[in-house]
Amino acid sequence: MTGLESKSMVDFTILLPDSSTYFNTRSLQRGKKTVIFCYSPTCPYCRAQMRGMLNNIQQYKDVQLVVITGADFESMKGFNNYFGLEGFNNIITGIDTGNVMVKTYQAYDVPFTAFFDNDKRLIAAYSGRITNKIFLGVIHP
């Protein structure tokens, strides 16, 4: 629990993999659930969770997935390339340049997964790797 459940998502900016474009979370579609997945490129638990998410991507097709890190640009690009993240229409990936997830949601440990409802209000947040069953239980209760 973060104590911020049912509060609106804080708007923040993400540096995208092209290294020159920024995306602001206020541009996320209302009416669609959003999951923000915070990772470290070298974390084996983050990699395992990302693999699990991609293995079940069809079950998340109606969800906006925001996959972010606070790591350096080259590490983020390596992670993106390894998993082929730019090939998915519902995945936005990049760097949380302002460390907003850490500052706002206490995302000190990775992986950190925050779930937001159709109105961009926080439903739940998890530190540590979560299973597909937990993931689906939150987005499709």
Explain the overall architecture.
It is built from 4 helices and 7 strands. The protein is α/β, with parallel strands linked by helices. It has one domain (13-139): Glutaredoxin, CATH 3.40.30. A 7-stranded mixed sheet has the order 2-1-5-4-3-6-7. β3 (33-39), α1 (44-55) and β4 form a beta-alpha-beta unit. The radius of gyration is 14 Å and the shape is globular. The relative contact order is 0.25.
In short:
Helices cover 26% and strands 26% of the residues. The protein contains four helices and seven strands, in the order βββαβαβαββα. The protein has helices at 44-55, 73-83, 100-105, 132-139, and strands at 13-15, 22-24, 33-39, 63-69, 91-96, 112-116, 122-127.
Name some characteristics of this structure:
141 residues, alpha/beta, Glutaredoxin, 7-stranded mixed sheet, 7 strands
Instruction: Give the N-terminus to C-terminus distance in angstroms.
Output: 18 Å
Q: CATH architecture, please?
A: 3-Layer(aba) Sandwich
* Number of domain modules: 1
Which strand order do you get reading across the main beta sheet? 2-1-5-4-3-6-7
Query: Which residues sit in consecutive blocks of at least 5 with pLDDT less than 50?
Result: none
* Strand segment tally: 7
CATH superfamily: Glutaredoxin
What topology does this entry show?
Layout: E1 13-15, E2 22-24, E3 33-39, H1 44-55, E4 63-69, H2 73-83, E5 91-96, H3 100-105, E6 112-116, E7 122-127, H4 132-139
